[in-house]
Amino acid sequence: MPQNAAPETIDDFFERLGARLPDLPKRLKQCGDFIAANPDRVAVSTVAELSADAGVQPSAFMRFCQELGFSGFSEMQKLFRTDYSRKWPDYGTRIQTLKDHGSGSPAALLAEFVDVGRTSLENLLTSVDAASLEEAVKTLAGARTIHLAGFRRAFPVTSYLAYAFEKMDIPAVLHSGLADVSLTHTIGPEDAVIAVTFAPYSEKTITLADVGAAQGAKLVAITDFITSPLTRLGAIPLYVAELDVGAFRALSASLSLAIALAVAVGSARESLKMEKKY
């Protein structure tokens, strides 16, 4: 695709956004960060609404669209309306319907979380690239020790991975930050780091992943978008975007990806042991 041509698919859009985002001016970067975190909004919002929520002027949003190769906002929105719905459904309407009919009851709230959890799991099948998953499993299976880095809402994912690896006798270190004790010195060139973070990204996770890469460890990222800082560190990306209920996001898809990854790594390590034995 010519450099100045508009992206033809959502995947093309996010690939271009990931490549250009670090070099964009501050206001245009705000636009990119907002779209990366709220891609479902583009198809159903006006440029004024998106600009206000991103904290920029509409003119900045228009410049952002042109920077990505579109003639303007309408052309970018058309792409999202025709292509995006095939992979990530618009869930806002369904959630609002649940709220309207449930009158804010606990049962309605449960139904909302079940609904977005189901959709997040369905989306996982398209957001995780099969080749990247295979590469991640191969990398982790061959690692001496697997280091787990994930803070704030990502911590349940890494703590679960630590539990699963322990049950399978796979050497792993959970970097919890407890008592402000750093374990980065334990990361070696024969190791691998699984870094888990979602927008707004944890600086502690990014820093730990950066240190691990500098010490020769291979990186696997469980993150949400191609614009994640982890992708710029050369991590093998496994993308998972959790839908939310209000400001609250469950971890249905993230934990499903984590257990699938752990079991696949355990199976791959057993196969490697058998190969060495015979």
From TrEMBL:
Domain HTH rpiR-type positions: 11-87
Origin organism lineage: Bacteria, Pseudomonadati, Pseudomonadota, Alphaproteobacteria, Hyphomicrobiales
Pfam families tied to this protein: HTH_6 (PF01418), SIS (PF01380)
Entry GO MF terms: carbohydrate derivative binding; DNA binding; DNA-binding transcription factor activity
Protein name: RpiR family transcriptional regulator
Keyword Membrane set for record: yes
InterPro entries: Homeodomain-like_sf, HTH_RpiR, RpiR-like, RpiR-like_SIS, SIS_dom, SIS_dom_sf, WH-like_DNA-bd_sf
Swiss-Prot/TrEMBL GO biological process terms: carbohydrate derivative metabolic process
Keyword set, alphabetical order: DNA-binding, Membrane, Transcription, Transcription regulation, Transmembrane, Transmembrane helix
Residue stretches making up the SIS domain: 136-273
Record bears the keyword DNA-binding: yes
TM annotation in the entry: 247-268
Record-linked SUPFAM superfamilies: Homeodomain-like (SSF46689), SIS domain (SSF53697)
Record organism: Martelella endophytica
